[in-house]
Design brief:
With about 200 residues, the chain is an alpha+beta fold. It has three helices and 13 strands.
Amino acid sequence: GVLSDGRLCLGLHQRGGPARLLSFVHPGLARHLPELQAAGFAPHDARLGDGDFHELQLRDPAGQGIALLEARTFSPPRPDHGRSHCGWFSGISLPAFDIEQVRDYWERAGFVALGVTDDPVAQVALTSDTLTLNLHQPRAIAAPLLLFTDPQMAARLERLAAFGIQGSAELPSGLDPRANALLAAPEGTLLLLLEAET
């Protein structure tokens, strides 16, 4: 199944392989493979046969799984979809011990480093035309985070509590638990809800 808030699409799968993949659509994937390899991207799994749905899987230097797909595997979200109760999806934050090495990898992939952030979790932000990636030290949080922001996050947290959704006690230090929250979805995906401008 696929869930979307209009900006973020979450695919839920019952299959083997990495637990969490960042997926990107790259039409004409098979003919772009030599270009990707020349740029230093070495897929560890490739399905590019005539009868296959073309897919490449890679890992960044921190071990984050990445899937490049020939085409989207689901219908686009309807324009009348409901709004997320979590706030504005502002990006994903990935744990990385060697921030510079991981930043360099994503810059080769076309992301632009915005420099060091003043975010209490992330250290480096990178952006593309469709996604912002933040890199954080694993000592802050050892797993990837979906990031949501809202200037009125405290009110959102009250509404989520009314639905029975509570934040974890493992909130990163420096964040006020009255206006920020770390949520864990049933399958383990972490969502960090931050009081910040959208």
